[in-house]
Amino acid sequence: MAANTKTSRKVTRYAVPVAVAGVAAATVAMVPAFANAGGPDLPKVTAQQLIEKVAASDVQQLSGTAKLSTDLGLPSLASGLLGGGGVAGGSADPQDKVAQLASGTHTFRVAADGPDRQKLTFLDGKDEYSLVHNGDDVWGYDSQSKEVFHEKAPEGAGKEHKTGERMAASPQQLAEELLKSVGPTTDVSVGDTAQVAGRDAYQLVLKPRQGGSTIASVQIAVDAGNGVPLRVQVLSAQGGKPIVDAGFTKVDFAKPAADTFVFTPPKGAKVTEGGPARGDKEFKALESFPGLDGLMGGPNAKGDTKVLGEGWATIARIDTGEGKGLLPGSGSGDKAKGKDAPKEAQQFLDSIGEKVSGTFGEGRVLSTRVVNALVTDDGKVYVGAVTKDALVKAADANK
């Protein structure tokens, strides 16, 4: 079910695309019964009805406060590469700030007035980082470093351009991206009701139908009145606290004041102009670590990538072309001692790696709560949001 251009502009950033309403019936649990479990008593709905409610939501104005907590289970060394420890400080480039959201807990204020005006202000103690989209202009301002980033839409591109789409920390954006990926490998149902930011909400629950995923479920709290996603929680198959917990703590659907989206660089601030080409730049964490760029398709990668499986169980098989000696301790002679591997790479692998073996040979699994990677001693990498056993099984079947 394709949305027309006008509808798409209304919905894209503030709800779920209308196309989501066309999810195959076999994917969605149609039984409306569910337990309130202490939540508000709401009329019963099916998952399909709830998805349609989200897709039909036409809310374009809101303001409020939200919190984002992320626990990917990264070791301290990897967290440092992602820039953990606070959003304010350093460059004002939005891409640098988004990378820092990969760990820890962050609070931010959000305001939106249609597709042309949005503002996110990340709060980090007394310091703030603001990202403002107002028509053709996008501004990023870091109050600690007094740096300003500015990007203007390319001529003829209209007011919706890539930098505006970087404002992806809100519960609405996260829900949109998750529901766009719903397919036959996902079971969709309605869970317990809840109250989020003082508003009654249904909860849409997405679960993998396949085994081996590191994700137990995704729960999306949907405003019972207007269909706006209020909270997204990604739960780990290992249990414990959510991998991602993003939700409003306060929300108001009145039109924000017009001056909310006006930004003028402070006197003396350093202003950096961005360009259209920057929209294609991606943050590279592992590739920036000495000796590991070849593992993840960086500039030193020599081999090919093959996708195995589908849905929640998808695994990427990367043939790095490195051969023996990729891992410390593999190969023979000096290679067995790891002398050909950079010291930093050895330390990184030792900090997060677990030795494994199978019919594929030997290797090491690098683990987080979400994405795991098996690096074999013959230079292949199997990576996905799947368990260690799933990676070993894939390596055995595709050696």
Description:
This protein is an alpha+beta fold and 399 residues long. The chain is built from seven helices and 19 strands. The chain has helices at 5-11, 47-56, 76-81, 94-99, 171-180, 343-352, 388-397, and strands at residues 61-70, 104-113, 117-124, 127-134, 137-142, 147-152, 186-190, 194-196, 199-208, 215-223, 229-236, 244-252, 270-273, 305-308, 315-319, 353-358, 361-366, 372-376, 380-384. The chain is globular, with a radius of gyration of 23 Å.
Shape: globular
CATH top-level class of the largest domain: Mainly Beta
- Mean pLDDT across every amino acid position: 74
Q: Could you tell me the radius of gyration in angstroms? A: 23 Å
**Fourth-tier CATH superfamily name of the largest domain:** Lipoprotein localisation LolA/LolB/LppX
Helix content: 10-25%
